[in-house]
Every structure is written in C-alpha cells, then in structure tokens.
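FAQ: What does the model actually see?

It sees only this:
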Amino acid sequence: MDGVAIRALRDGDPEVFAAAFTAIGWNKPVQQYEKYLAEQEAGLRDVLVATVDEEFAGYVTVWWESPYEPFEGIPEISDFNVLPKFRRRGIGSGLMDAAEARVAERSDVVGIGVGLYPDYGTAQRMYVRRGYIPDGRGLIYDGRQVPPMATVRNDDSACLMFTKSLVHDH
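And it is asked to produce this:
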C-alpha cells in the first residue's frame, strides 16, 4: 500500500499513541507505551508500528514470553490496534504479517488471544482466516482457564486463546 511503513516503536511514540487513542475516546495511557518501549529495549517485547505517510495508524506487539502458562514459551501477539480511520486498507494484515515473520525467526508457533464481545468480531474472523485455531482450553479470564459453570464478566480480560503453526510445508 502506498505510503504505509512498518517500523519499531521509538522515543516520542508513546505520547503520539496516547493522544491518538484519547482523541477517539479510548483509554490507552502514555504509561502503557512507555512500558512497551522499556520492554522492547529489554528484549521482552517487540512493538511494530504502522504509519501512513508518516502518520500513526496502528501497532501490534510480540510478547516473547507469554504470561499465558499453557503457551509454555510460545511467543504471543498481543495488543493489536489499528485506528478506525485507517481500517479496511490492509494495515492490520500488514502488521500481522510483520509480527508473524518476526516470530517465525525464533519459533515454529505463535499464539494470540481474542476477546469475545462484538468489538472483536473483525479480529476473530481475521485470525481464523489467517490459520489460527483455538487452543482447546475454552474461556480464559486474566490468563486463567474458567471452570465450567463459573460466571465471569465479558470484558477485555475474557478471551479465547489461539495458536498458529508458522512452519510451511514445501
């Protein structure tokens, strides 16, 4: 796509990200991105940023040590966002391609979690189309499996976890 670039998170980005999300009514404070920058510098997380003609459009992170214990060392793609005005232009797919390529350098498998309410519908469909399959552990809340008949709140902490093989048969 013309004008689209994907690069690493860098100094100055946290303020830009926080302002862009505040402008659309999302609560994503600057501290979250400052933490990501520190984690990237420490080698714990990679943050890939998409820009369109130098304007911030979205990002995705690769968490090298997923906190989700069943992944047992499988890197996890997490916190994937494209600003609404840049959606339906291939930017999300480009970010996912870049994240999966980054993971493939170090792992044959990648994991991802996806929320369960309608705001996540586009992501749910995208992940399935990209070859992600549920890990079979059912509903996860705050990284822990929810037992049968338990009640949880359907918020951003409730998700299904998926994995995808990055090994291609030739």
